[in-house]
Specification:
single chain, Udp-n-acetylmuramoylalanyl-d-glutamate--2,6- Diaminopimelate Ligase, Chain: A, domain 1, globular, 5-stranded mixed β-sheet, 6-stranded parallel β-sheet, 363 residues, 2 domains, alpha/beta, Rossmann fold
Length: 363
């Protein structure tokens, strides 16, 4: 069966494009397809196999063990100065041809392609490659992913629909993501009605899954370049709760629970000792410590830190800066997050109308 490319767009950053893309690829594989993947324009790249490749392209390449050359999954990496150079010499034709060539190469191997966008429909307009234009180039049909809610998502979808329609791109519908369980039925019903008023439809409503928002001590160390003092073998410890231990030790105890990261000034030996004791006795023994201020821990407590088997990180920055970073903190899914990836498979399979999407992709 010959099908159009499926373009996964979004209304904002971190709505869940990559999560839906991962789940969709797995569901399609369940159904006997061999979908390819491409993120034509990547804003956040890493060095991978000697080339700058968007981190989502790397993720998909690793998770599904794709044999495709990584470059074909990520032809345009937006390096520093890219936009300025384009504006000074605005020639989009070579960039468009690069995207088309990579897509055609992938289509020789895969019967259909999942194309992941970058942000909302207009992102990339400053260098001639908005999501809407790229979808038009590839002859793709679009599914828009947006975060749970009612008014705000509908307003944002209206803007995206306008730009896609301006480029004559067919929007199949919307996947509502991260819908709060206690409001699920109300939000799903209301948004479905609102989308019909806008001339499109709701293709899925995925409930908020707390498991997908957790992160590890290792990810904290990697993201903020913290020094790992000990606990290298336990950097996969999950974090679901944060405590700033700037109070007296007896008051710290009551706030520590499973999977807590305790942020402590590095010269507060009392709170370091209390936190080690409480965390090491927790049933699940997750979380860890972040010592702030650049203070090396006292040599007398180093053996206790090591024996706790907890990951302990060191930051040269003060407690306020370190703790401020923890608010609304989110991390990209990594290839080793097998539990999250498996859960995404289940969520897309259960809550997204894949049959309707496939029917509308047929040429």
């Amino acid at each position: 069966m010959d099908v159009k490319p499926l373009y996964i767009s979004a209304t904002l950053r971190d709505c869940g494009k990559t999560s839906v893309s991962l789940g969709m690829i797995q569901v399609l594989r369940d159904r006997g397809f061999d979908p390819g993947y491409c993120k034509p324009v990547g804003q956040h790249y890493v060095r991978y196999q000697n080339k700058n490749i968007d981190e989502d392209g790397v993720l998909v390449h690793q998770v599904f063990k794709l044999c495709d050359e990584p470059y074909y999954l990520s032809p345009i990496a937006i390096e520093p100065g890219f936009t300025q150079k384009f504006i000074e010499n605005p020639d989009v034709a070579p960039l468009e041809q690069e995207i088309i060539t990579c897509h055609q190469t992938l289509r020789q191997v895969h019967p259909m392609i999942i194309v992941e966008g970058t942000g909302h429909a207009g992102v990339g307009s400053c260098f001639g490659l908005s999501n809407a234009r790229v979808a038009e180039l590839l002859g793709a049909k679009v599914v828009i992913v947006t975060a749970g809610g009612i008014g705000r998502p509908l307003d944002e979808i209206t803007l995206s629909l306008a730009l896609f329609r301006q480029h004559n791109v067919k929007v199949l519908g919307v996947v509502l993501n991260k819908v709060l369980i206690e409001k699920y039925d109300k939000v799903k019903k209301t948004v479905a009605k609102g989308l019909r008023m806008l001339g499109t439809e709701l293709l899925g409503a995925i409930p908020y899954e707390p498991q997908l928002s957790t992160f590890t001590m290792g990810q904290l160390a990697e993201e903020f370049n913290y020094t790992i003092l000990c606990g290298h073998d336990h950097l996969t410890n999950r974090v679901t709760h944060t405590v700033v231990a700037a109070m007296e030790p007896q008051n710290v105890i009551r706030y520590i629970r499973d999977n807590t990261v305790v942020i402590i000034p590095g010269d507060r030996i009392d709170n370091i000792l209390v936190s080690l004791l409480v965390l090491s006795r927790q049933e699940h023994n997750g979380g860890g410590l972040i010592l702030t201020g650049g203070f090396d821990p006292h040599p007398m407590i180093e053996p206790l830190m090591v024996s706790s088997q907890l990951p302990i990180l060191l930051s040269n920055e003060d407690t306020f800066i370190v703790s401020s970073r923890m608010k609304d903190l989110g991390f990209k899914i990594r290839s080793y997050d097998t539990e999250k990836i498996s859960r995404l498979h289940e969520l897309v399979s259960q809550y997204v109308d894949v049959d309707s999407i496939l029917d509308q992709l047929k040429v």
